UniProtKB/TrEMBL annotation:
Source taxonomy: Bacteria, Bacillati, Bacillota, Bacilli, Lactobacillales
Presence of keyword NADP: no
Keyword match NAD: no
Transmembrane segments: 46-71
Protein name: Protein-export membrane protein SecG
Membrane topology listed for this record: Multi-pass membrane protein
GO molecular function, one term: protein-transporting ATPase activity
GO BP annotations listed: intracellular protein transmembrane transport; protein secretion; protein transport by the Sec complex
GO cellular component term, pick one: plasma membrane
Summary of the function given for this chain in its UniProt record: Involved in protein export. Participates in an early event of protein translocation.
Length: 74
């Protein structure tokens, strides 16, 4: 349970540290961000590292949650 809580806190921190991916202008809000559909670019530097760390923390969260359910049911 302690490891699960630590992973939760790390995952929250990773998500909060990720930079914003859009400009948050009024036109994007009105059109639903359709202009960003084809402007995808590959993450580099800090952004790429944070994506990897967040993915790893998410996978650990999922695995630990399933393990806790299994342990609590047996």
């Amino acid at each position: 349970m302690t490891i699960f809580l630590i992973v939760c806190v790390i995952m929250i921190a990773c998500v909060m540290m990720q930079p914003a991916k859009n400009d948050n202008d009024a036109m994007s809000a009105l059109t639903g961000g359709a202009g960003d559909l084809f402007s995808r670019r590959k993450a580099r530097g800090f952004e790429a590292v944070m994506q990897i760390v967040t993915t790893i923390c998410g996978a650990l969260f999922f695995i630990l949650a399933l393990a806790l359910v299994y342990v609590s049911s047996h």
